[in-house]
Every structure is written in structure tokens, then in C-alpha cells.
Write a structure and sequence with these properties.
two-stranded antiparallel ribbon, 8 helices, 12 strands, 30% helix, binds zinc ion
């Protein structure tokens, strides 16, 4: 930008023809307007792809009141994050079968109620296992891969996954993830990575948009695996992994556009509503019982945020 401006100013100096220099000035203005426009567009994350997902209808979720979990008897709203039981009439929550097993290593100091990884267990109950670190199964290295973007990780799209029966995800904040990664039972696993994607996660985290919420990483992995095994084709087979995530995303956009509630969130997270509410205030709201709370409808601070980087990391 700076260079471009200087170049144009130099051009102006060298021009004797006044008309020409007026035109150049106009050009410069057009350029600046265009750049400003582009800057404004960049500020808001493009979430248009969400509407292309093939999701089960989620309208019933908006009708749910908090209810007693049939198993643990605790009060929950959309599902129980301890028992992984979906709420609502039976059959309304989508169920998925995954092509290979999914293991999640969860760091115990972080609240399960705020983990997006839980969504995968609720939706694909038979194929997902959640382990509280330091509980780690003794994995068969020939059949297990770890999703982690190190410099030596192979991309799913390029990797030989023919013998792989299980994929492991780390569900923790970035700094605690290293503790899990140093565990010999985890360290011995072959690492794979997904393509870089931007997160839509709503809660503030300082690392940037290449750090995905765990459920986003799980979704992208199964999508890429399906493409790898099916000649690059994908037709929404695993979109329902994002069933709750998309619901919460839309709910939170709506709640905060309409209301005056504030929470730690990414800058410009909420797109401007017609009334122009775009505030980025930082009052915490982390433990309420309202609909935009619990099981990662949670709108509170970032202290329990979980995310997976899709950018290469060296540890
Ligand atoms: Zn329960």
C-alpha cells in the first residue's frame, strides 16, 4: 500500500500533463476505496459455507427446555455432556457411523461442558471414545494416527491410510496439548494433518483463525478421509458432525445481534445487525443456564477454550 502510494506520487511529479495527473489521482482514490472495501470484507469471517452443509433439521432444539438427564439426573438442555445423551424426541438428533474409530484425549482441567469434542460423541456414540488424560489406551501404532500438525505430519489427502482403524485427537488448550504430546503412548503415533481451514469458533482465543475448535478438526478430518477414499468426492456424509456446532453458531449470532449481552469473543465476531450492534465488549458471562450456554453454546471466557491448529507447529 505504502509503496503503491509512493510510486503514484512519483508518477504525478513527473507528469506535465494536468489531465493525466487528475486521472491518476482519481485512480489512486478508486484504489484506496477498493482497498478499504476489501478490508471491511475481511473483518468478518466468511460463514456462507455453513448454509451448504447437509444437516438434520435442528428447529426442535429451539423448543427444548432444560430437562433432567435420564442417566445422571442432572439438568441439561440440548444434550448431557457427561452421558452423551441427546435431548429431544428420540430420532430427532442425527446419528452417524464413522469409517474409522475416533479417540479424543481430553485434558481434565478443562470443562467438558465447554468442549466441542463432546458433539462427536453425542452424534457418533459407537465410534467415538473420550479419554481423560493421563488415561491413554496402548495404541497399535500400525493402525492408529494422531491428528497433529507437526513439520513431519503428512496431509490426509497424501497419506496412506489403508491400514488405519483409529484417529486420535487432542482436546485441550494449546499449552496443555504439549503435555499430552510428550506422553510416550502418544508420541509414538504417526502424525497426520488436515488442510488449513479458518475456524468459526466464537470464543476469544489469541492464536488466530487457523486454530480450530476440536469438532471442526474432527469434521474436516472425516471429510478429507472420505475424499481420500472416494476419488475426491464428498457429498455431506459427515456434515452432521457439525449439527450442534452450527446450531450454536447461529444461535449466538442471533442472540447477540438482538441483545445487549457481551462476552469474550473474537474481534468483529458478530456481524453487524440492521441496528448496527457490533460491540466487542469484554464482560465475562461464563456460567449461566440460558440457551446460549453449556456444551459449547457456552459464551463465557476463553479459559477453557479448546482448539487444534491446522498450521505447522514445531515443539
Ligand atoms: Zn447425564
Amino acid at each position: 500500500m505504502e509503496n503503491k502510494k509512493n510510486k503514484k506520487n512519483n508518477n504525478n511529479k513527473n507528469q506535465d500533463d494536468e489531465t493525466e495527473s487528475v486521472d491518476l489521482n482519481k485512480l489512486k482514490l478508486d484504489d484506496e476505496e477498493q482497498e478499504q472495501e476489501q478490508e471491511q470484507k475481511k473483518e468478518f469471517i466468511d460463514d456462507s459455507w455453513l448454509s451448504t452443509l447437509k444437516l438434520a433439521p435442528s428447529d426442535y432444539l429451539t423448543e427444548l427446555d432444560r430437562a433432567i438427564c435420564p442417566q445422571c439426573k442432572k439438568k441439561r438442555k440440548y444434550f448431557c455432556y457427561d452421558c452423551y445423551v441427546p435431548f429431544g424426541e428420540p430420532g430427532l438428533a442425527p446419528k452417524l457411523k464413522l469409517p474409522i474409530k475416533c479417540d479424543i484425549l481430553h485434558y481434565p482441567t478443562e470443562l467438558l461442558s465447554k468442549s466441542t469434542a463432546i458433539h462427536s460423541k453425542v452424534i457418533a456414540f459407537d465410534d467415538v471414545s473420550i479419554h481423560e488424560f493421563p488415561e491413554v489406551p496402548d495404541y497399535n501404532v500400525d493402525e492408529t494416527v494422531l491428528l497433529y500438525p507437526s513439520a513431519t505430519s503428512e496431509f490426509v489427502r497424501e497419506s496412506d491410510l489403508s491400514n488405519v482403524k483409529r484417529v486420535v485427537f487432542i482436546d485441550s488448550q494449546w499449552h496443555t496439548a504439549n503435555r499430552i504430546l510428550r506422553d510416550p503412548r502418544v508420541k509414538k503415533l504417526r502424525c497426520i494433518k488436515i488442510d488449513q481451514h479458518k475456524t468459526l469458533f466464537w470464543r476469544y482465543q489469541q492464536h488466530g483463525d487457523a486454530y480450530l475448535a476440536t469438532i471442526e478438526a474432527i469434521y474436516y478430518f472425516y471429510r478429507e478421509l472420505h475424499m481420500r477414499l472416494n476419488g475426491g468426492n464428498y457429498d455431506g456424509q459427515y456434515d452432521n458432525l457439525l449439527f450442534y456446532y452450527t446450531f450454536f453458531y447461529n444461535l449466538i449470532q442471533k442472540t447477540y445481534k438482538q441483545g445487549d449481552r457481551n462476552f469474550w469473543r473474537k474481534q468483529n465476531y458478530i456481524k453487524p445487525a440492521k441496528d448496527g450492534i457490533t460491540g466487542d465488549s469484554i464482560t465475562g458471562d461464563s456460567t449461566g443456564d440460558d440457551e446460549a450456554n453449556d456444551s459449547t453454546g457456552n459464551t463465557g471466557g476463553d479459559s477453557n477454550n479448546t482448539y487444534i491448529s491446522t498450521a505447522d507447529t514445531t515443539d
